[in-house]
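Students often ask what a 'structure token' actually looks like in practice. Rather than answer in the abstract, let us consider Transmembrane protein, a protein of 354 residues. Its sequence is given first.
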Amino acid sequence: MTRSQEYSIKKGRAELTPPDGKSRIFLSGYVLNDDGTQGEALSTRLFSLTSPDPSLRTPVFNNGSLNFQHIPNPIADFFVAGTAQGENGVYKNTTPVVHECNVHWCVKSLQTAYKWGRAQENTTKVVQLDSNQEYPWKGFNISGTIVQKYTTNFSLTLPSRPQSDLAYNTFKVINQTMLETILAFDEILPSYVTTENSTSTAKFRWLNAGQGFGSPATVVDMPADSNPWLPPNNITEQLELIADTMTIVMRNTPNATNKLQLVQGTAWDQKTFIHIRWGWAVWPILLLALGLAFLIATVSKCSKEESVVRVWKNSVLAVLVNGLGDDMQKSIGSNPRMGEIKDRVRGMEVELTE
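Now compare that with the structural description of the same chain:
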């Protein structure tokens, strides 16, 4: 689970001062060369509120958090400082924006569905894992070197349930899993993005692992083609993507016996049903039935009238399809009288030919 809190640094020097006042953290700015030109610019900085030094692991700010002190023993609590427009914003003395991000363990209740070959999950409830309130890092003397070890375990026990498929109601994260997860975050905490000048490519820089064990820290860098930590990007959304990826890894990692722990449950398959509202179809069906009845009645009535010349019965279809011949049109004329037409019809026969 992730949370973030945004606040801005006042104009002036872009730096944070810890409550103890012993040190300051530079957030944004650039090098001023001897000739007065603008040099290397710092546009982004990520740093943990707990020292990554394995021999210390002490909080940097308060108890390791500013806005999330009510969350005990998080995976990571860190600041993300970014300046809008990157190095261009830095050279313009744009005030950086700082987010405090908190990542911690939780258990989610999911409502699943299966549609068109894909499983869909909707989170209905989130509960944070419990742990003791003691500081989790404890120092141990190993061959004359003080090494900090993570000693806290996390668990959540749900109320007992009688269903056989819901017998596993306790969720746990042991200290070894927690330590490996923290070390993964140590790869980017601390880290920063700098640019040599306004025309060069930005570089993402971080310290290699192993600092504090006798080997000096080495700065590793790579081109930063894109930077999701810069404003106005959504920092919370970016952190949620990281948390979702971690969740997928946790769910697909086998246990000590190289087996996946499967959770049984019900996955609903969505189906589409058609319901006919006959009330809406009554009127069109009634009109169709009345029209058909009227047509049948008309044909039946006309077929019984022997004394009336039935022009439509034996010739109208042929006339509609082929039309009258040229000789017949000339004999009728342009303005014939009805009587003349009836006289001619009595002696006229029309047939369909291919």
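One point worth highlighting: Residues 278-346 form one domain. Ask yourself how you might have guessed this from the sequence alone, and why that guess would often be unreliable.
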